Amino acid sequence: MRRTSRSACRQRHHSEGWDLPVTAWNGNRTRPGLRQRDVLFYTIAPYRAAPNAATVSAMTPAKAFESFAASLIGLPIRHVWRGYGSALFLELGTTHPTTRHDGSLGIPQGDVSLGVEWSWRIEDQTAIRCGSWSDEDLWEPAFDLLRNERVARCELFGSLPEVMLTTDSGRRFLTFSTTDGQPQWHLVDWRDGPARWFTVRDGKLHLGDGTELRT
Q: Which of 26, 91, 114, 215 could share a disulfide with 182, CB 3.0–4.6 Å?
């Protein structure tokens, strides 16, 4: 199994010079999750700018995600890269250079980052093209299917929220944790002020600044 250890992920974030963990884990606390009517589905077509940070602070996580998801429509998937094990990261929008602690160039960071600690899959209208359990020889060709595609829709699904990102060609990237605990994904909006981290805590969508993930 290509599961990524939490310590390895922390080591990765230090080696790349990130100020926050590159994966979101929230312990093993569980309670009943979202009701069916709470599952979010967004098909808004026009591009929208990132919501104002002050406006977002007054929203519930679900409402904030609705606005955030709409702002992703039309953004390109500029970079897809691997972390340790099967950890995978998608950088959306304009990419920006980063610097490691030793001064060397790090992984380019998008306006928005989607990270998955281990379980994911890539599919099209007819089949699963690749997943975190697939032969690694299939990974890069599958990543190429996503690179430079544009986001057509972002949605949450399941009682315990998981992410599905659909491109304008109909390809889909899905997170789907198969271990105990919380779904292991994060979406980070680096635009317009302090970063906003969407994760799952206690079986519910959570919106924070990332500092609560240090523990």
A: 26
